[in-house]
Amino acid sequence: MAQNATRGGFDPFNEIPARLLRVRKQLLGGRFCFESESRALLKLVDMAYAGLPRHQLSTPPADFRIRLRLVPRESPMTADEPPMLKTQSGAGLLCGVMDAQNYAILYPDQRKALIVVSDDMLDRPYYPRYELIEFAVFTLAARAMGLVPLHGACIGRRGRGLLLLGASGAGKSTLALHGLLQGLEFLAEDAVFVEPHSLLATGTANFLHLRADSLQAFTSAATIAWAQQSAVIRRRSGVQKFELDLRGRNHRLAAAPLKLVAAIFVSSAQASDAQDLLQPLATAAVVERLTADQPYAATQPGWRSFVRQLSRMNLFELRRGQGPQAAVAALSGLLG
């Protein structure tokens, strides 16, 4: 076993750290303490979560502790991007592993995580931020607080929220951005976490991701320029997107969790009548469609309770009309 020397002898597991620095954030209704010897890793935490509203759910906030460790790269990475994150579980642990120097180990029952990042990944900050830090925050919060993790977006007004669902490429992000620009509150664009008994939804309103061809839906030169000047990230699928940072631009970020009042499946189908974009859906059809749309969430303990509560809401399919402005107007009508 490789042994690491310390002043007092050997520390094979790196259990004797130098002075730890700490950053605290209230996220998804939980209180997270991030600690590390590396200022660069804590800077990634701030890059992801600084300036976000402090959400409080219906239950007292749980406390979480995430330790971040920076290690040297043992051998050069030859590929353009790190290996795909692979997940594993056992003995009460959850793991996400890229390679021997980049991984996250989660202890949901103890509300703790260890994240290890190689120093060369600081030149590729999107990967440790999105695939390791966000992975740990989202997974710990969902497991420890019983939240239902959904792939979707959420916008709203005056504490009332609309859950936007649908396949990738259906236009959820474009619709959410149009809603934000037209004065609606923005809660999340990619990952929404719902308290199943209360239908309070929370998320991290930090970034919104748009494909270049989505800019055709915008007429404002300022909005297009803002998107084009944003960082460009590349998803594992190979799709490139603009990463728009929503903080510090006087946008209406949801200051508190939103109570869901309707769920909308965003469709690429064209509406037969431009005045009738929202099509009511039968509850039975929604349950089947929702389970197919959210396979991971459907395995979580709170799923049945969430579906029962959801079936009491307004459920719609949103079809395409003469532009996103008309779609936002139709959605705004659901918020009263």
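The record above closes out task 2.4. Task 2.5 opens with a second protein, given below.
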Amino acid sequence: MNPVKPLAAVASLMFASSAISADLTVYTYDSFISEWGPGPQLEKAFEQQCSCNLEFIAAEDGVSILNRLRIEGNKTKADLILGIDEGLLEETRKTGLVQSHNIDLSGLKAELNWHDSDFVPFDYGYFSFIYNSEKITQPATSLKNLIESDASVIYQDPRTSTPGQGLMMWVKSVYGDKAPAAWKQLSKHTVTVTKGWWEAYSMFLEGDADYVLSYNTSPAYHVVAEQKTQYKAAPFKEGHVAQVEVAAITANSTNKDRAQQFLKFLISKEAQSIIPVTNWMMPVIPGMELPDAFADLIQPQRIGFSPETMADNRKSWVREWRNAVSE
């Protein structure tokens, strides 16, 4: 669910019957297929390559993609899902609604250490709190520092948003069994908890909060697209939780060969040159030329949990968060 999404009004597309006529149907999140997102360029490039009709169908976020796939089950019209992340990976696999991709992933960045047989990564970044340096001259230096401050914060609901889920993992990583107390403290200076990333980031840009949960790559958007340098990601000394966004072929896809072709395209130089400057995340293959603004991004230490641990604990951690913030 992942970086500064294009800052223009985006209407979520409904899961429509038009997908039936497509040669290849991909469920993704709404900002991915917005006018300024990577979807339109990727669609055009892939259709030229495959001489086929690719159709993106949008949900609000990665969590929504998984929820929709569960509801539709084996009746889904999707050939692929694109936009869930590591936090949902094992939970998605356990549904039995995705299948092996059989694609060589040896060309991915070594730092990803990716060997999964069902999911192909297409970008990554680190969850971060973004602030306006023209308003805040001494930003928080740690998650504890932020939570124990009185700075106003906006973040996303972990039940519906992958960034919100990322924050849940982050708080649990740093606070462990004391996470409920941390959530209660944070709630005292939380402006609002939004359903998705877009609403939260838009409110922040309107000046409604000191910090918003987003990505370490978010400042690159403002520099490259707007020539604005005041938006920064606060580096936290405890480390940051990473988000690796992935795609997978659905179990009942009737066009696996073309779905595999799309996944190979997704990690090609052509596609990887599009994604960083439209989805504002890091490329998954080495040697890509990026705008200078990417070199200035914070490079956090990675913390968090394995996909297996997330699958085993997500429901109980969501319940812990809900109970803490509702008191």
